[in-house]
Write a structure and sequence with these properties.
- The chain is mostly helical.
- The protein is built from eleven helices and four strands.
- It has one domain.
- Helix content is 71%, strand content 4%.
- Strands 1-2 form a two-stranded antiparallel ribbon. It has a two-stranded antiparallel ribbon with strand order 3-4.
- Helix 4 packs antiparallel against helix 10.
Length: 270
């Protein structure tokens, strides 16, 4: 059991703990590291005890609930104006913590899509539509590369079409949805270069090992591994292209909770 869970736990623990160390060393507010480590503890507990819905109906209901979560910021979330004056709504506030709804919901949606060919393209397209109204190119690129990974495994033309649509939609969202960068959240690898070059190397290595653990070592189907690995790759690429959150190593509980939720749905952990 422990051996089965180990790749999932390492995929989260390595970058989150490395990131927490950097946050403390770089002078970030202390609660940044504490929030990330607390999210890691919750994610690890879910990986240990979580289960996927046992029926197809349950999985469909879960997918619907996750799409609803992605749309929730439109009703209850705080809004910010992008550099082009567009209202950006990506977050939900839970007490003093603000969470990125897409980063919580999307990884589990990707796993559900990889498990059921009938759900794959509809779920990815529904997630893309939810992302378009936020708008959020970071999540859009995550959908793009998740779809690329799933298409590589399944050769489903509908998933391939979803990848193409997500890519061009993401380019549009880069233009209209860009926000001013936030220190310790976005551009983390570049920020860690000065004056912490060794931290930048350590953080990059931790992200690379996380990607490798998800893509090659999870006790899951090839479709699930490539889909979830593609999603993480998309988040990393987006964070290096523009001011979007750097997953797992930067301040932000949502990517940790979202990937933890997805990894805890892995049927082979049961």
């Amino acid at each position: 059991m422990v051996r089965q869970r180990l790749p999932a736990l390492l995929a989260l623990a390595l970058p989150v703990l490395a990131g927490a160390g950097w946050l403390l060393a770089a002078g970030a507010p202390q609660h940044f590291a504490l929030v990330n480590v607390a999210a890691l503890a919750l994610a690890a507990a879910w990986i240990e005890f979580g289960r996927e819905p046992e029926t197809a109906r349950g999985r469909y209901l879960l997918a619907g609930a996750l799409i609803a979560l992605m749309l929730a910021p439109l009703a209850v979330g705080p809004a910010m104006l992008s550099t082009t004056g567009v209202a950006v709504v990506r977050w939900i506030a839970i007490g003093p913590v603000t969470l990125h709804a897409g980063m919580i919901a999307l990884p589990a949606l990707a796993v559900l899509a990889a498990r059921d060919a009938r759900m794959a393209a509809p779920v990815l397209l529904a997630a893309l539509l939810a992302t378009l109204v936020q708008p959020d190119a970071g999540t859009g690129f995550a959908i793009t590369f998740a779809a690329v990974g799933l298409h590589h495994a399944t050769k489903d033309w509908k998933v391939g079409l979803a990848a193409v649509l997500a890519f061009f939609a993401s380019l549009r969202m880069v233009v209209v949805g860009e926000l001013p960068p936030q220190p310790f959240v976005e551009g983390v690898l570049a920020q860690a270069l000065h004056p912490h070059m060794l931290w930048a190397v350590a953080l990059a290595l931790a992200l690379a090992l996380s990607f490798a653990a998800i893509t090659f070592a999870l006790p899951a189907s090839r479709a699930e591994r490539l889909t979830l690995g593609g999603l993480l790759f998309g988040l990393i690429v987006a964070s290096m292209m523009a001011p979007y959150p750097t997953p797992l190593i930067g301040y932000g509980a949502a990517p940790v909770l979202g990937l933890g939720l997805a990894l805890g749905l892995n049927r082979k952990f049961a």
